[in-house]
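Supplementary Methods, section 5.1.

A reviewer requested that the exact input to the structure prediction be made available. We therefore reproduce it here, unchanged from the version used in the analyses.
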Amino acid sequence: MRPSWDEYFMNIVDLVKTRSTCLRRQVGALIVKDKRILASGYNGAPVGCKHCAEVGCIRNKLNIPSGQRHEICRATHAEQNAIVQAAYSGTSIKGATMYVTTQPCVLCAKLCINAGITKIIFRGDYPDELAMELLKEAGVRVIKYEDPE
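The structure derived from this sequence is encoded token-by-token as follows.
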């Protein structure tokens, strides 16, 4: 049976996240407009920097809970990397949809809002209520994806 567009893009984003080098949570993101993939991203260290898989996770070492102290991490988030990839190639993402394997954090929510993302479809939960409040306030449609049975 042919997958719906949402199922198709969520399946692709699941593959994208396998490139992640994060020891705590692999996340993938995909930016889509008019059923065309514009950019993808996964969480990992910046270009030219060592990955957590090589040097260890500072957040684990400091026992920092999920959803807190985002700045203490080597990785760039998947959503951030997808937005940067689009910018790097000069691709406008205004009016696009972002598919992501986990609910965005507040930092990624703010970037999505300012980048012109108008809809976010995500699968997994993340403990960040402020992110959801800001997305709602900015008029970004946020949909929790449910896998078809």
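Helices lie at 5-16, 52-55, 58-61, 78-88, 106-115, 129-137. These observations are discussed further in the main text.
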